[in-house]
């Protein structure tokens, strides 16, 4: 079975299905799995960007100066 739908019609169906899933009491019910799989194939969600790497620790200039003093 093939449907000749325009891009706007496909987008409308996907948006409607996503809204219905958001309002569903049990969105992860096993009976809805085929619908979730088709939605994932037809309109995959963009993957979130990985977090930026944390900066390495650099002591303040006061601490650096303190550590350089002879004892």
Describe the structure.
The structure is a single chain. The protein is an all-alpha fold and 71 residues long. The protein contains 3 helices and no strands.
User: Unreliable runs, pLDDT <50, ≥5 residues?
Assistant: none
How many distinct beta strands? 0
Rg on CA atoms, Å: 26 Å
- Main sheet? none
Strand content: under 5%
Blueprint of the fold:
Blueprint: H1 7-23, H2 33-42, H3 61-68
Looking at this protein, list some descriptive labels:
3 helices, single chain, mainly alpha, 71 residues
Offer a quick outline of the entry.
By secondary structure, this protein is an all-alpha fold. The chain has helices at residues 7-23, 33-42, 61-68. 49% of the residues lie in helices and 0% in strands.
């Amino acid at each position: 079975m093939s449907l000749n739908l325009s891009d706007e019609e496909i987008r409308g169906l996907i948006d409607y299905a996503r809204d219905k899933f958001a309002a569903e009491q049990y969105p992860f019910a096993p009976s809805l799995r085929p619908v979730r799989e088709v939605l994932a194939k037809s309109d995959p969600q963009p993957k979130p960007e990985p977090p930026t790497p944390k900066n390495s620790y650099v002591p303040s200039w006061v601490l650096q100066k303190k550590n350089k003093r002879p004892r």
